[in-house]
Amino acid sequence: MAGPGGRRRMSRPPELFPLFADLETLEGVGPKTAKAMAGLGVERPKDLLFLLPHSGVDRSRRASVRDVVPPAVVTVEVTVGSHFPPRQKGRPYRVAVKDSALEFQLVYFHARGDFLLRLLPTGQRRIVSGRVELFDGIAQMVHPDHVLRPEEAGDLPEFEPVYPLVAGVTQKVLAKAAQAAVARAPELAEWIDGPLKRREGWPDWHAAVQAVHAPESAADLAPAAAARARLAYDELFAHQVTLALARMRARRGKGRASVGTGVLQRKVLDSLPYAPTGAQSRAVGEIAGDMASGLRMNRLLQGDVGAGKTLVALMALLVAVEAGGQGVMMAPTEILARQHLEGLRPLAEAAGVRLDLLTGRDKGAERAAKLRALAEGETGILVGTHAVFQKDVQFHDLRLAVIDEQHRFGVAQRMELGAKGAAADVLVMTATPIPRSLALASYGDMDVSVLDEKPAGRKPVKTVMVSTQRLDEVVAHLARAVAEGRQAYWVCPLVEDSETVDYASAEARFQHLRAALGDCVGLVHGQMPPAEKDAAMARFVAGETSVLVATTVIEVGVNVPNASIMVIERAEIFGLAQLHQLRGRVGRGSAESTCLLMYQAPLSEGGERRLTTLRDTDDGFRIAEEDLAMRGAGDLIGTAQSGLPRFRVADLERQSALMETAQSDARRLLAEDPQLESPRGRAVRLLLWLLDQDRAIRLISVG
């Protein structure tokens, strides 16, 4: 079948067919088992190759049960003695056996006697393997895992792998199916870079697959074991090749060179009371360089709370205007869009550039006037919500789109926005510091600029841990602060009262604080209609309320410089990154700020580690690394919205260095061989098929 440009669409290579057959073609797998295996993410034989054992059992032969200290697993040859069927229902069936030095019993519950007589004929020798325990001084093996004839002894590995299970699949069935899948694995050409493979001492793919399913000791089960590390690298590499192809595709979209003159940027810098940080200047340089090139920019600007992303974004937007075009800045909510407008307005005025806001609220004549100014190019910079996606919004010459808070916008929306300006550059900003390994997993298709310095004049926030027993003191402290004209956030973990959960609900806390402090207390939570929420936020921003009781809806972006106190109730149940984001809402003005972490004693070990980490550092990247180490990757960015790939073998927390290698290797390979036509390129295509990276295969085939 011909694809675009008459190219053949690529079809699955024949050598992989056996691995993509039905599961039922494997020995011992019937329709029921096949259906149950789907619960393990196993749908075809090749999935079994990557379902690795998580532990193992030592099944090496012993002369006698005497040689181990029960309870322990032991494998021993015995002579079968008498059978003792149970006298009454529900009692166990016992079989006396004798090894070279000791008599003991095999014990079965709910077993059929005729089956056991066939399995263990009196007078014959058998090899039994299972867990031995002492019961009233007599050694017993309850339900042996294996009973074999002496001539079958070779079937039992000395170290037996243990696989993850799901209802309806037993260890025996899974191990047998995995072995059958391994037997089908073909020898494949090498896709890993030769020098890298030699340096790491990794085996070939085929050998690695065999080795991970036949571990010889616990050391072979560690992520660092050569065979496992190799398969983990394959996975990370396939993922990075896919992202690199997507990036190449995005950049191949012809960009427009937007070369700034520096005139407007200079005006803004001259109007500032401080100099930009080194990190800000570096980021602006990287962005301006991308915009000046003929390729489309696809860059992520990562900065911790308060690292000064707004200034960098404005400088980028001014490059677009200096080059004769327009820029747009998108925010996920109307409140944030208005905030960007407030932040950018004085700077845009200094540069003499017209700035406008477009949200869903704009109607009628006012909206028409804004759209006209935009279409005629009078508006240099537009700030808005996703209302700017609407059909009737036409730009005169859109050069740059800045998107705030990445995970609210999927890749699809990035594309839509790109379509508004035939070749607009895209800059995505996120205030969530992401550890490098995760940034590569989620945004490997983008180039990354990092703001890792705090601008001058930001005072650190004093962070204190307080037990909930001291609630009254905290409220008294708050009353004094409010009397001095300060503002505070009070964050609660949950909205409605639920009988089983003793979290103070926002509603109840609001009533309590109102009784103590009067009507200067406001409330926002997730169940409120958006208009009410906006109104409550607006009253707080305007200073009409002094204390805002809220669930975590405030963590993204709200800026109230006068707010200098943050109380987080039941802080121990929040994630580290979330706590760090919340704390970042204060410390934005000139006042000394405090963050009170209220916890319920006693703290769990994890809870204590989170709160002390937060108390001792305000470096978002360090906090994110610690969070990753404690919680794991999926949790960190909230699996639902993370779009984080599900790796079967690779472990992002422990193998982050492999991810970096995989990214540079993938980008280098595609720079040299963009169509994957070289011998190594062809091998990489096999890897992409094997790991279901169909998206990548489509990207090559329409190439």
UniProtKB/TrEMBL annotation:
Q: Which CDD domains match?
A: DEXHc_RecG, RecG_wedge_OBF
**InterPro entries, A to Z:** DEAD/DEAH_box_helicase_dom, Helicase_ATP-bd, Helicase_C-like, NA-bd_OB-fold, P-loop_NTPase, RecG/Mfd, RecG_dom3_C, RecG_wedge
Q: Which GO terms describe its molecular function?
A: helicase activity
All copies of domain Helicase C-terminal, residue ranges: 470-629
- Helicase ATP-binding domain span: 290-451
Keywords tagged on the record: ATP-binding, DNA damage, DNA repair, DNA-binding, Helicase, Hydrolase, Nucleotide-binding
Q: Which Pfam families match?
A: DEAD (PF00270), Helicase_C (PF00271), RecG_dom3_C (PF19833), RecG_wedge (PF17191)
Q: What is this protein called?
A: Probable DNA 3'-5' helicase RecG
Q: What is the originating organism of this protein?
A: Gemmobacter nanjingensis
